[in-house]
Amino acid sequence: MGRPATVVAALNAQAVTTFVVYKTITPSGNGGCLVDLGIDDTGNFMLADGNQVGSFADSFMKVPNTAQSAFSTLATSIGSYTNGTGTFPLERWHVDGGCVGHASSASAGPGATVSLCIGANANNGAFINCEADIYEILFWDQALTPTEVMQAHMWACEKYGQSYPWASRDHMLVFDGDSITMGLGGSSPADSYPYKVAQTLGLSFGQWTNLGIGGDTITEMDTRAPAGVDDVYALIGKPVKLAAFEWYNQRAASPTPRNNSLTYLSNRRSSTVKVCFGTSTDTSATTDTDRADYNTYFDANNTSATMDAYVAIHADANIGVETAAANFPGNFADGVHLSAAGYTILAGLMVTGVNALVFAPTINTQPANLSVYENALANFTIAATASSGTNSYQWKKNGVNVGTDSTTLSFTAALSDNAALITCDVTDDNGTVTSSTATLTVIPSSIVAWMVA
User: In what order do the strands lie in the sheet with 98-104?
Assistant: First the structure.
């Protein structure tokens, strides 16, 4: 997409990703424009002024960010999206590889004035200054998935000798849901509960990502999760802590909303994805007799067989119980969505659930079956990655502790060791995992002597 006209055509078609590698020079506080693919004062407007970063679609989406002076990336991806509310142009924007916000994107109409500006906005003088070094601007004539944007950020880090933002972390934190997760009702993405959770946990941009899309059911979340949740570990080698819930849009599903939630949970959970699942916030917009059944079901069925951590949002007096919207109207922006105050309460609940998610070490290479001659040295090895801290190792032979705290077990094989079962327990700060079992076969020395003779 080397020509501006081609970029503009892609924007008008609502299928374009813009990816900027930059650093700010002097914080200006005036909403400095990095790139403006403008359509009569709307379109793909990307701002970074050293104090805040964001985008403009149908409204300003910006969050504080003072860590742009050395190296940063900002990306917007615009594409057609369909869910139960209809088909609409969806814009995601990403800071340092992590998705921060979503909005409906503006589209050009017949006779619209289209412009492509770098470092300034042609139509609005209030946002004309951008004091930044722009290293790269890349365009795709399609909407990249969240994981593909993460991959683009990895490329930029490698090209410019920067560390991945998640390098110091033992996991990636992913939020999934509908407009509640998106933060609708707040004044900016900084009011969303994912942003507030990330701030509470001390996470930088690129160490978390928000996939919430307004109007999505949990079935639609399940459909898009393979590109944004399930594929993260394969890309960055870090397991995923997933905070997810959705009830309002799924409430009319047949036979019951909980079945769809159980499907979502089953499809996500693995050795590299741990799920914190929440129930539902109150609403005054509609009366749903199924909500109590839904919440009661998960109150009774939130064991390790279905999820890894559970947050009973519906039990919170301020945002969850049936009377919350009526009793605490300041916590709600409308009959369905929370206000900034309400999202602060939700974030506090979800922090507890996210912190309950822990990963045991990951075994990369299992001990292998081994055949040795009697009185020869038997060597078993294991390779594992710690999820937190460093690993310790306890080898076992037929269930009895042997060897030292090492990735290798060595001993002289006696005939009595034939058919011995070898395992290794690997422990880090978050827990212990046991290796698969390796079998030792010892060949008697008498057979060796006969073969030589």
Answer: 98-104, 86-95, 72-83, 16-24, 132-140
- Parallel, antiparallel or unpaired: strands 72-83 and 86-95: antiparallel
Residue 310 burial (CB count, 10 A): 19
Nearest to 216 by CA among 79, 78, 82, 83: 83
Q: Based on C-alpha coordinates, what's the Rg of the chain?
A: 27
Q: Where are the alpha helices (DSSP H) in 289-409?
A: 290-300, 324-327, 340-355
Token pair listed for 451:
């073969």
Fold of 362-452: Immunoglobulin-like (2.60.40)
217: helix, strand or coil:
coil
Domain ranges of the chain: 1-162, 166-358, 362-452
pLDDT, tens digit, 9 for 90 and up, residues 402-430 = 999 999 999 999 999 999 999 999 999 88
Residue 1: its pLDDT value, please? 43
Asked whether the beta carbons of 342 and 349 are under 8 A apart, the reply is no
pLDDT of residue 150: 97
Q: What is the 3-state secondary structure (H, E, C) of 27-68?
A: CCCCCCEEEEEEECCEEEEEEECCCEEEEECCCEEEEECCCC
- pLDDT in the model for residue 7: 63
Using DSSP's 3-state secondary structure scheme, residue 148 falls into: helix
* 1-162: CATH number: 2.60.120.200
Residue 371, pLDDT score: 97
CA 256 → CA 223, 291, 295, distances in Å?
A: 18, 10, 12
Q: Which DSSP string corresponds to 62-97?
A: EEE----SS-EEEEEEEEEEEETTEEEEEEEEEETT
Question: Strand locations in 141-256, DSSP E?
Answer: 172-176, 208-210, 240-244
pLDDT at 452: 53
Surface-to-core class of residue 322, CB atoms within 10 Å of its CB (0-12 exposed, 13-18 middle, 19+ buried): middle
**DSSP string covering 259-305:** HHHHHHHHHH-BTTEEEEEE-----SS---THHHHHHHHHHHS-STT
Q: What is the pLDDT of residues 293-319, one digit of tens each?
A: 899 999 999 999 999 999 999 999 999
Q: Is 1-162's fold the same as 362-452's?
A: no
CATH number (1.10.260.40, 1.25.40.10, 3.40.50.1110, 3.20.170.30) of 166-358 reads 3.40.50.1110
List the chain residues with pLDDT less than 70.
1-14, 25-32, 37-44, 56-60, 105-116, 119-130, 253-255, 287, 447-453
Q: Give dist(CA 449, CA 453) in Å, integer.
A: 6
- Judged on CB neighbours under 10 Å (0-12, 13-18, 19+), 348 is middle
How high does pLDDT run on average in the chain? 86
